[in-house]
Write a structure and sequence with these properties.
Blueprint (H helix, E strand, L loop, with lengths): L4 E5 L6 H15 L2 E7 L17 H26 L5 E6 L3 H9 L4 E5 L14 H8 L4 E4 L13 E4 L4 H9 L1 H4 L6 E7 L11 H9 L6 E7 L3 H11 L4 E5 L2 E4 L2 E4 L1 H9 L4 E4 L1
Parallel strand pairs: 1-2, 1-4, 2-3, 4-5, 6-7, 6-9, 7-8, 9-12
Antiparallel strand pairs: 5-12, 10-11
Helix pairs in contact: 1-2, 3-4, 8-9
Length: about 280
């Protein structure tokens, strides 16, 4: 199994270039088609003045958002071409970013987007994108940190966060195209004092055997921690020089509120390296 289509969120945020670079790297490494997706930020349910002669501040804002989305796609196009991505396309959606990316996820194997950053909210976004897309896109997310200047290819040393859950197992399967060529893969199990471990959470050897049958050789490491699991994962990744964290994400919707599990919430908030996460 590999990636045939990768979609990347295109906007005008300061970290967009890092997002395009990572998406291009993965597309080249896997031979996938790379689609840049930009949203105008104009909800499909919005009503606009129909008289073109009438004063329309909202219409002016709409035109500005269109220009920004087109500029984001043009920047993506230039960078993807310079990175040597031959199979690429552009997709401009007249909708809010969440809806646009949910639609694009149906036709992609992987979504690449940035960590939620309060300093760079896309036009029309009413909620942070990663939690909503994690729960509803039905596809793995590859998230780029809002901070840092990491250089070089990603995926040379992934850290796999194994807690025995179906979500983690799915994340590992979703990450196989990145894990097979990795020079080193570490599978980490945590004995988290904050709560009881899930069933079979420490059976890292069984998961390592499963991955080996997919052509991935892993080193199994078990650690104990008194910190919350999310912080422990990020510290473990930094201590080992890992350049990718692969994990399952937990959460659910309650009325209009998105509730993430503690580990997921911590990693999405404090991530210092790219994270591939599945729900």
């Amino acid at each position: 199994m590999g990636y045939a289509t990768i979609a990347v969120h295109c906007d005008r945020s300061p970290r967009a270039a890092a997002r395009y670079a990572l998406a291009a790297q993965v597309a080249r490494a896997t031979g996938a088609h790379l689609t840049g997706v930009a949203a105008t930020g104009v909800s499909r349910y919005a009503e606009w003045p129909r008289d073109p002669a009438a004063p329309a501040p909202l219409a002016t804002a709409r035109e500005q958002w269109h220009r920004q989305a087109q500029a984001a796609l043009a920047s993506f196009e230039r960078r993807a071409a310079a990175a040597g991505v031959e199979r690429r396309s552009l997709y401009l959606v007249d909708d809010d970013p969440e809806s646009a990316l949910l639609l694009s996820a149906r036709h992609a194997d992987l979504l690449v987007l940035g960590q939620a950053d309060a300093r760079a909210v896309p036009p029309g976004a009413i909620r942070p994108l990663p939690p909503e897309l994690l729960l509803h896109a039905g596809r793995p997310l590859l998230l780029v940190p809002a901070q840092g200047t990491r250089s070089g290819p990603v995926g040379r040393h992934p850290l796999l966060a194994w807690d025995g859950s179906p979500r983690a197992a799915r994340a590992f399967t979703d990450a196989l195209p990145l894990l097979r060529p990795a020079g080193r893969v570490t599978l980490l199990t945590l004995d988290d004092d904050a709560g009881p471990a899930p069933h079979d959470a420490r059976a890292g050897d069984d998961m390592a055997l499963y991955l080996s049958r997919h052509g991935v050789r892993v080193d199994v490491v078990a650690e104990s921690t008194r910190a919350d699991a999310g912080s422990a994962l990020l510290r473990a990744a930094a201590a080992r020089g890992c350049d990718l964290l692969v994990m399952g994400g937990y959460g659910h919707r309650r009325l209009r509120e998105t509730l993430l599990g503690g580990t997921t919430r911590t990693v999405l908030r404090d991530m210092t390296l790219p994270v591939l996460i599945s729900h």
